[in-house]
Input
Amino acid sequence: MTTTETPQKPSLPIVENFTRRAAVKGAFATLGAGAFVAAISPLRQAARNSSAAEFMQTHYSELSPEQKADVIARLEAEAKEKYDADVTIADDRPIPGTKFVYAINLSVCNGNGKCVEACHKENNHDRDTNQSYIRVIEMPKGTMDMEKGSTTYTGAVPKDDKFYLPVQCQQCDEPPCVDVCPVKATWKEEDGIVVVDYNWCIGCRYCEAACPYHARRFNWKKPEVPAKEVNPDQSYLSNRIRPVGVVEKCTYCLHRTRRGKLPACLEACPTGARVFGNILDPKSNIRWILENKRVYILKEELGTKPAFFYYFD
Amino acid sequence: MSSIITPSESESHVTSYPKFIGRSLWLATEGSFAFYAWMTMLTALFLVGANAWANQVAGGMIGTNMTDQVSWGLYIANFTFMVGLAAGGVMMVIPAYLYHDRKMHDVVIIGELLAIAAIVMCLLFVVADLGRPDRFWHMLPIIGKFNWPISMLTWDVIVLNGYLLLNLHICGYLLYMRFLGRKPNPTWYIPFVMLSIVWAISIHTVTAFLYCGLGGRPFWNTALLAPRFLASAFVSGPAFIIVSMVLIKRLTGVGGLDQPIATLTKIIRVTILVNLLMVASELFTEFYTGGSHVSAAKYLFFGLHGKTALVPWTWTAIGLNVTAALLFLWPGLLRFRWRPLLVTACVMAFVGAWIEKGMGLIIPGFVPSTLHEIVEYVPSQLEWKVTVGIWAFGLMVFTIAIKTALPTLKHPAEHSR
Output
């Protein structure tokens, strides 16, 4: 091999006083880097709030039983440390042969909002933002146009010229929210409940944009719940206190319903407008209603196939 | 004394490529007092943005004015616009390589460098919008869980990063060959240039599909969204490049820019009208048809139930777009003594497109909400700081990239392709 130093066209010229310039540039680069570290120092505080184990945790579906037990123990310890609450977090799985559906009797619902309140407490929502998975729309009689409705109504209910339309997650059979999630942090379980792995969600809120029923909520801040108000009966995919920066949603209270109880909103309803059950059970109340009442679903034209029905007497 | 680095032919790329990067960076940080002042200002703005973002991560996104009703705001608005800017850079490539415009060949790299800076900004805007940026790795293929091909967002990740790599390769290769003093080998870049044309269109199409695939959001649920995105991208991209070239000519004395400026101006003359035509078509469908689908458009243009936060934005955008269109239609705009007017027209078209794609497209998609609540959104100070920080960073990347390419731009004939 010969190295021929052929006279070539000038490439990049090198300026004079290389070392002095290098020193000045180095000094400014160091200054800039230092300023940058100082600017992002609040991140240290954020890092303190999450452990290496949490950072490394894999997707719910990939956790072995032992890993799941470790994760749950860690989450319970965190609840004690951050909220001073003794909680038990279960990993409730769907019961085979079950498909949960919900129905609301609009002839009976009077807009008292007890369901909204019960949901708020049952699911350990942030007290400040007064969050709930349920919104009740007060609608003028004679229209189904939600634009004419109001979710912020006040005064005594029911008003004569109004009817009331509670909306929560419809647990769609074709859920647009699940399709759009870029990281598979949300999925539909065998019993029809759409869930979120709060430890996998990256907080992009694409699902919130995709949902036609405004059923998803984002944790804009760390939820604050006083220790004595924390509901200690929790489940990994349901009402455990959510981390900041992730999306959450109604799970038909799977920590209750998968244990044979009814959703909190149903128990709280004073008018008996709410019916919940297993549609695969031919003898169930809900099956009878769906077969015998005038039933409809919301935004049917979008093809989301809700597992949430409305009916009139 | 001025020495010259002359890499020998036999030197391995393993040693000469890092040398090239080092030399380029060294050269890119050389400059006049004005250059240092400019970079210092950008650094300061970037640091303000970085600090605001760090506070947002530490305190939660409650610091933004977004809500469950309006769950995307200024960040995603800017992201959408930046995708357009990146795609618009390709308008340098098309005349150069499809129509064999020799003058364009010499400066085509400006558009590619703009694309690189714009994509970097896109990625930063997405990260700024994440509630859990620490879980960013969940989005990576293989080690995370990639919901491909169902989620449009995963498609977007692929096309944006692919476009970034494509442009890095093309620019890197051309500049590196120049550093080595060799003639670039067309087989190593022409196929990639051709691919980048298709790819540029794909990035903006996929980004439009992100929105128009959502059945529950009638304002976005229109087949015209992707073509509209492209039309406005082919206004904002060339507009930015024209202004850059006017500045480059002024500040560095690089010649041969007048004809490319004229070519891009002619392109904008067409695309700005196509864009306005599409806006008009959409408005006709919305307002003449009426029904409940018109609410978002009504809110955008006239306000709804007394809520009017977006109305000033909209009419500003319309005013800027229409005025810019009229200016571009005027043949005298290309005369040298009307350069300031050309720059003004470009700035108007650019800002008009920014509003139209951002505050005029993303926000009204959420107002009224899917349950028809009207919750208004005005970006918070924190959001503005982060946004300005990312823009400053993008301009820094662009400035450095242009400085790296200056020797090539100054002596284009040496490696004429």
Remarks:
- The first strand of chain B starts at residue 3 and ends at 4.
- Chain B has 13 helices and one strand.
